[in-house]
Amino acid sequence: MGFVLRWIVTAVAVAAAVWLVPGVEVSSATESWVGVAAFALFLALLNMSIKPILQFLSLPITCLTLGIFYLVVNTFMLYLASWLATGLFDTGLVISSFGSAFVASIVISVVSAILNSIVGADD
Fold first, then answer.
1. Distance from the first to the final alpha carbon of the chain
2. 3-class DSSP state for residue 93?
3. What's this model's pTM, rounded to 2 decimal places?
4. Distance between CA 78 and CA 14 in Å, rounded?
5. Residue 13 belongs to what domain range?
6. What are phi and psi of 35, to 5 degrees?
7. pLDDT 10s per residue in the chain (123 long)?
8. How far apart are CA 23 and CA 98, in angstroms?
9. Which of 12, 21, 102, 114 is most deeply packed, by most CB within 10 A?
10. What's the domain count of the chain?
11. What would you measure as the largest C-alpha separation in the chain, in angstroms?
C-alpha cells in the first residue's frame, strides 16, 4: 500500500506543478490525468530506484553547494521520467526548458513534502 500512496502523492504534486509552472505541459492524446498518472508512476519508480544512487554519487558537489545541487538531481529525474513516459506510453509531460524543469522540481518537492507529512506516506 505504501507505493500506491506514494504514487498518488506524486501525481498530485505533478498536477500542481503542471498547473503552476509555465513551460510544463501534459502531452496526452487522451485525458490529461492519464499523462500525469503515467509521469508520476515513472517518477515514483525512479525516485525509489535510481535517485538514491545519484544522490550518493553527487554527495561531494551537494556538500560544496550546501544542498542546492540536490535540486539539479531532482530536475534530472524529471527529465528522465518525462523521456520514459513519452517514449513508452506516448503520454506524459513536455518540459520546455531547464528553468521550467527546475521550478517544477521545487514545486513537486514542496507539495510532496507537505502531502507526505499529512498522509504519512514516509512511514
1. 11
2. strand
3. 0.87
4. 10
5. 2-119
6. -65, -40
7. 588 888 899 999 999 999 999 988 888 666 778 888 888 999 989 988 998 999 899 999 999 999 899 999 999 999 999 898 888 888 888 899 999 999 999 999 999 999 988 987 555
8. 10
9. 21
10. 1
11. 44
